[in-house]
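Marked as duplicate of an earlier ticket. Keeping the data here for the record.
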Amino acid sequence: MKKLSILGSTGSIGVNTLEVVSQNETQFCIVALAAGRNCDLLKTQIEQFHPLIAAVIDETHALRLKGLLPPDCKTEILCGATGYREVARIAEAEMVVSAMVGSAGLVPTLEAIDAGKHIALANKETMVAAGHLVVEKARVKKVQILPVDSEHSAIFQCLNGQRGQDVRRIILTASGGPFRTFSKVQLENVTPADALKHPNWNMGRKITIDSASMMNKGLEIIEAKWLFGVDIDNIHVLIHPKSVVHSMVEFIDGSVIAQLGVPDMRIPIAYALSYPADRLPRHDAPLDFLKVSPLEFYEPDSDRFPCLKLACDAGRAGGTLPVVLNGANEVAVEAFLEKRIQFTAMPVIIAEALSRHHSLSSPTLEEILAADLWSRQEAHHIIKEIRH
């Protein structure tokens, strides 16, 4: 039985992970959970899975959670950075599911790797901001980084048993989000409610907005660079509206291997959790090729969706530019969700933050955290400038 710790248990990935666990109770055991502020859901999860420890964002929420739990609950409640660290490093866990939203997952994920835990990685921002540190620490600690994103899981599966030197390029697929056919004028008037209506996937708010702006795909390009050791210029994106082909790998002999499946995050989650053991059986309706046919692909439009190019340029340049890209994007997404800026202002804010930054090459963790803080403060300043 594989023992798991989950960073971000109340988010979309965390909830789906626990659903996979509940359907395979003889295969997995939950030893630790970490969440943000959703004490009600975390309380339900604690009562169902009985972890040894659980952590929330601060002492106020820890006290609230303790008040919700029955007096005889044996789960130790922790909080803050110390609590997240304990969840990441708990001795009993063999694997840590990194599913915290945004750059908040970086330090706990590095803590888990340092403690020798295999990582089921859903937090792409960790690789975007500190891919060089994650890859090197995982190598030293002999830790596996198993991707949970559907696209990176697809690539991982396509590469399984293949030689790295035989890869010509990686092809990431993107649904195009809810605004795939919108003009630039139409994009100026979209609302957060419009952007949160993803046509294929049920995801958290932040990643859904990133999908609508195509920043999500840009972040995935940078993540793929580090996960698979492929240059940015050898990673391509195709719009695939039906989200059936999750990604592809083209080899030097012209062969292309693709991974297909219904758009359900439980599939890549289950693959990562069970790896390298046998795949976990599913009893849902299988992929019906007659219903999903035809499978169509289109070139992305970087004029209407400039976030994709911003991410590629930052990933190609490296240093602390990807950190700034990510931090500014998180601030811009929050401002859009709060209706303080237009959808089309997000790439403007990110581009301006990147232009003002003096990048550091091969940054340390401390320099990454400092660049992240700077990017957020600068993005807030830029938003004020735009609004006035």
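See parent ticket for discussion. The longest strand covers residues 167-174.
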